[in-house]
Design goal:
Length: 86
């Protein structure tokens, strides 16, 4: 599937995310909550890193601006996920 920028958007999970989903499906209760929270923290950290990199080094000015504006929201989500762990 392509979006208005002509970028290809995945329609299925990649292998790493499929493995993460499979791992979560095998857990329940506290073990599920702990793993889910850890996965959310890691995913948000990775997203923030990617967005910061694109905001500084990206090739499309509109996407760079959007990435820059989105970083605070991602950081807020990371803080919420981090609070779940405490």
């Amino acid at each position: 599937m392509e979006n208005q920028k002509g970028l290809s958007v995945p329609t299925n999970l990649d292998q790493a995310h499929r493995a993460m989903l499979n791992r979560l499906q095998q857990l329940n209760g506290c073990a599920f909550e702990k793993q889910f929270t850890q996965d959310q923290i890691a995913a948000h950290q990775q997203a923030i890193s990617l967005f910061k990199d694109y905001a500084q080094n990206g090739s499309d000015q509109e996407l760079k601006t959007w990435a820059h504006k989105t970083i605070p929201e991602l950081e807020q989500h990371l803080q919420l996920a981090d609070n779940l762990q405490k």
